[in-house]
Design goal:
By secondary structure, the protein is of the alpha/beta class. The chain contains 21 helices and 29 strands. The chain has an 11-stranded mixed beta sheet with strand order 7-6-14-8-9-13-10-12-11-15-16, sandwiched between helices. Strands 26-27-23-22-21-28-29 form a 7-stranded mixed beta sheet, sandwiched between helices.
Length: 762
Amino acid sequence: MSIDNSTAPVTPDNTAPVARRLVIGGRVQGVGFRPYLYRLACAHGLEGWVRNRVGEVEIHVQGRPDAVTAFVRELLADTPPLSRPRLESDAAAEAVDLAGFEIRESLDQGEVQVHVPPDLYTCQDCLAELSDPGDRRYHYPFINCTQCGPRYTLIRALPYDRAATTMAGFELCPPCLEEYRDPANRRFHAEPVACPDCGPGLTFHGRDGEVIAGNAGALDACLATLRDGRVVAVKGIGGYHLLCDARSDAAITRLRSRKPRPHKPLAVMFPADTDNPLAQVAEAVHLSRAHTEQLLSAERPIVLARKRPACSLSGLLAPGLDEIGVMLPYSPLHHLLLAGFAAPLVATSANISGEPVLTDNTAVEERLGHVADAFLHHDRPIERPADDPVVRVIAGRARPLRLGRGSAPLERSLPCFLEKPVLAAGGHMKNSVALAWQDRIVISPHIGDMGTARSLAVFEQTVADLQALYGVTAESVVCDAHPGYATTRWAERCGLPLQRVQHHHAHASACHAGSSAEPWLVFTWDGVGYGTDGSLWGGEALLGRPGTWQRFASLRPFHLPGGERAGREPWRSAAALCWESGREWTGQPADAVLLHQAWERRLNSPQTTAAGRLFDAAAALTGVCLEASYEGQGPMQLEAACRDMADPVNMPLTQQATGLWASDWEPLLPMLLDPSRSLAERAACFHASMANTLLQQARCVRDAHAIDHVGLSGGVFQNRVLTEQAIRLLEQDGFDVTLPDSIPVNDAGLCFGQVIEFAAAL
């Protein structure tokens, strides 16, 4: 009897090599991803190669089937902590003749899928070497590896290789070159890698012409100057800081008088012990879990936290406020300075007020020579500025107030696909810009207020840099509808097809982000924005979704005497409310008679519905702040005056002939002007009244349109007391509430909302 083997099952050969070709996208360059893959492949005894291509990592791996399967299974299981990988493709490939596994040269061809890494804080391995007297990088202010160090601020082009960074001029010494070429070393292709023999160095410039070169000497001179109560401008990763003793009234007074910055809060950087990095921070401020997580996060932001009554910090850090901005050192130079000083230091941006942070050695001496007593420079060029990010914990979660070093460029996915790339120019204050293409959007770090030539220059540099780094050229531009914004004027002359987006529509869309097909009610409360009717909006409740926003409710309008000046002179808003309602108020300046006459004739007195101006008025009427030296000073101090909860004053909600609902602020005035009530009680009552007004408007739209999802957007919702009360009231009443937690609710988020509106209009 014969057996026909042609139909017998074939036993698989589990020893014959198989091969796979994989592509990994996301944040995989500049974070040690290729060395990670090299080690993983070697651990499984595999052959092949890995290389960077434009924005992605490409892998060819081959060997025993079970080993290849294990490699693919573990590929994304234990990736470098700062990476954000995404498996783009996985396909069978042909096994070829290879010996071992290698890391190949980068490939600069292929479809652009760039993900620019942000600047990274100093990792624990480098900190251990920094403090080890036996290590050759002991106390080296520029120590880094694939897991830490500058990225965005030194990259000149992609792919991310040393020759395309500001480190190109520093030739590696033999020991560094050996580390750089060794795939098993954590400094393999760490592009900013250096040591005292071959890398950047410090130079100290004193006010009397003293120059001290060399890391140790310059650092000692800087510390001596700080101990003497002086102000030093120190070059960091994304720009310069102005540093001084955070415990010294005299030092802070010197800094404030010279800058000048009489009242605006100053951030504080604390020493970070290896075993307990938050020990000194916790002695100065109250820390929740959310505060702790943010302080220790990879972004290392400035975190607003409530001061402890008995802390040793100067009371001049944040006059009239109960919170200060605290942060940990994030670069090796900062660690050395804070460890050497052994106490907290003021660390505020070295800039002319409102402008981008300064980055150039010569420029900082020319522009801030009257502020700083000395300068600690280094010779690693900063390609582009990146100020420190700022977050505030509201309703138990961290909310960004400013994107910056470590948190930007911020990448988000779009809810739709763009056929052509678009650039969003943002607003006039707290400007950031955005570049969007396909289903991606990238938001720049904080640029600043657009009222100076340098701000515009950095704005234009950022616009060019984003397009160059990501290999994307914008084919249209979107801007704010305000005709007077510097960003609007730039957009008008840039030569690209232009679309204007109303200010509060952008706020609403930044909150909604196209995340739902259902209409929302979004409250867009801020200072002022150019309305569709030509008046100054800022207390709006918008109904709809991106591209379809309709103004449903607002606040009773009033006329602002002096227009834009009211933003820095809260007494003007207070006077306007009293004039509108026929009330006497003795708090206005004696020479306001002529202003009142101009107001009566509506000369330079635009109409506004801005909630932010109501907060200004409340701050002035309660005596908290009549004139502000920085934006939002009155409302911030009024919030800080709140102690306990209070019953609200009812603000009548009525429907106008146009169909718009409006809440009347006039019943607030007797309460705000009542001297028999404490400041804390009046401040709490005002916040409770505004939160209750928001609830009443939300109920009104639910009754009319069955809407149960509410969004909060606009700078007023940086106010923790108001926002937490509003969220609580809304949720208790059955509403779902969204408060953005990755995009700032203030004007820094406008560029994101502009893109969402632009996409919806298509």
